[in-house]
Amino acid sequence: MIFAEPRFGTAIIDERDLxxxxxxNDELDRVVRELLSRRPDIKMLFLVGSCPSEVIKLxxxxxxxxxxxxxxxxxxxxNYSGSGIETTFTQGEDACLASLxxxxxxxxxxxxxxxxxxxxxxxxxxxxxxxxxxxxxAGVAFFPPRSSRALPAVGPQTQFLLAQPFLGExxxxxxxxGATHLRAPFPFGVEGTTEWLRIAATAFGISxxxxxxxxxxxxxxxxxxxxxxxxxxxGKRIFxxxxxxxxxxxxxxxxxxxxxxxTEVGTPYLHREHLKHELAWLPSSATLSEGQDVEKQxxxxxxxxPDLVVCGLGLANPLEAQGLTTKWAIELVFSPVxxxxxxxxxxELFARPLxxxxxxxxxxxxxxxxx
Length: 371
Description:
Layout: H1 24-38, E1 44-49, H2 53-56, H3 60-70, E2 76-81, H4 91-100, E3 113-117, H5 122-135, E4 141-143, E5 158-162, H6 168-176, E6 180-181, H7 189-203, H8 208-233, E7 237-240, H9 247-258, E8 261-267, H10 276-281, E9 287-290, H11 294-304, E10 308-311, H12 313-321, E11 326-328, H13 329-334, H14 343-370
Parallel strand pairs: 1-2, 3-4, 3-5, 5-6, 7-8, 7-10, 8-9, 10-11
Helix pairs in contact: 4-6, 5-8, 7-8, 7-9, 8-14
């Protein structure tokens, strides 16, 4: 699961149904029944397929409809695929939120409202809520909410910002409900966060003076915190393998705010409309690649011999064994990295592997000197 807080529990059906030793629907009914008997406080339940229905031999959409009738007025049961077969594992979050959009209530007044879309840690959500309030945008809704019983309303007066670049289906579903997408850079680093907030402020008629007052202190604090990481990262060459769809905004942050050189930025899927601002901010020297062609990407990576490689777990150890320094891409998905206060933490995630490599090199030199 990719969600940012432990608001979700999981119950897993045993693999014996795949071996034909049990009826899959009976097993699913049993797990749901036991789960709800132990946790009657559950008000929303997702049936998540790790593979397409043709593979697991279980139609989860029909199962969700059947179980919803059985537990009507007790729990809302939805389904989605979390397989990540088409592009990447972050599809799971997108599919989950898209499945929730039809459940959102409809706005019944004409007052404009702002919705922030994408799973965020509670501390980051609280920081953004305070910033929006200080700017003069009250009652900002976050989707998903902290409680399934507090789903935000949506309608023609709703405007929404994406907090994650991989929420294409969710954005389409919200637009179909009448909401307007405020296209913006993503809130990674000082620059991205500032422009993300500024686009919302402009849409809601907030003056430039009030926006400056609301953002000045956290912006300056974040800029100071980035200084110590810039010293270590500036001029270092970095290669991104496609993994999570976070690659382009992160590359922009590293290039523009920390002075890193982008050798190649690979992403599983390039949504040009959602990333319009980010693409405009990338240096023209950066090579972009879309999709998985691992052998060719490995060849280019080895030939370029970058200072740092961002990749999945399966590539990290082999590349380390070949002398390259790696950063696990998945850590960037699970860590609090959005907003001003997390800018230095985000930079440190990239600085840490380089520091580790330096320490190991020093130890190796000391051992050689002693021998």
